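Handover notes (outgoing to incoming on-call)

Open items:
1. Phosphatase PAP2 family protein: sequence verified, structure written out, both below. Nothing else pending on this one.
2. Nothing else urgent.
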Amino acid sequence: MILFDNMTTVAIYTTLVVILLLWYGALANPFRIGGLFLKELATSRTYLFHFVALIAILFLNKVELMIENNMTNYTVDFTSFVQSIEGGFVSNLQQTFENEIVTFVLAFIYVVVFQAMLIASIGIYTYQDKTKRMYYATCYAIMINYLVAIPFYFFLPVNEVWAHDSSVRFLMLDVFPTFETEYRALSGLNNCFPSLHTSISVTLAVLAIRSGNKRWAWFCSICAAAVIFAIFYLGIHWLTDMLGGMLLGLFASTVGMRISAAGTFLRSRGRQRRLGKLTYAQEDAK
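Phosphatase PAP2 family protein C-alpha cells:
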C-alpha cells in the first residue's frame, strides 16, 4: 500500500495535518492563527529573529550532510559496537509487530505528523500566549537539539539498523518507495545517534505539558510515544539512539524553557523602563 509518491504528497499531507492540529490544539480557526503568525513576523523583530534562527538551524542539518560527504578520510563506524550491546532488539520487535496497517500508520506518523506537530506547536503558542514565552522556548529547544546532535553525526557515525542488520527490513519503503531518493537528503544514513525524531518529539511533549494546554499535552505525549515505537518498528534506529534522543529532548526542553523565561523577564523589564521614561517625559511636558 503506497502512501507517499513523492515529497509533494508529503507536503500536501503535512499541510492538511497542520490545519487539523491547529484547530485541535488551539480550538480556533487555523487560518486566523496563520494570519496572526504572519502579523507577528511583520511587526515583531524579536519574533522574526527567532523564527529566522530556527529555519537557519534546520538548514544547518543539510550543511552538515554536505560536510560529512567530504570527510572521506574519517572512516570510523560505531554501528557494530552498538549492535554488540543491543543484539537483536530491533529485529525481534519488528518481526513481532509487523503488519501492513501498522506500517501504514507509523510511516505516516514518522514522516507527516512529526513535522506537523512542530509547525502546529509554533502556531498554537503564538496564538495562546501574549508573551510568546512558549514560542521562544520551542525555538530555543529545537536549536539546542540540532546543535548538540550534529557533532555526534560528524564524529560518532552509526548506520541505521536496516542498513547493517540483514534480519531487519526498512519497512518505510513499503509505503514510500522513493524514500531514498526523495527524503534521504534530509537525513544521513549514518546520522543515528542521537535520534532527532526521538529528541524533538520528547522536546515537544515536555513543552506542551509545561504550556498548560492539556489537550495539546496529551496529543504530543501520545505522538512522542508513537514516534519512538516507529523508529524501531520501521527498522531505522537502535535502542541506544532512542535513549540518547530522550536525554537530549529532556535537556533541550529544560534549557529552552529557562532561556525563554530569562528572555521574557528581560523584555518585560525593558518595556517597564520604556513606559517609565515615557511617563516621566509626559509629566515634564505638563
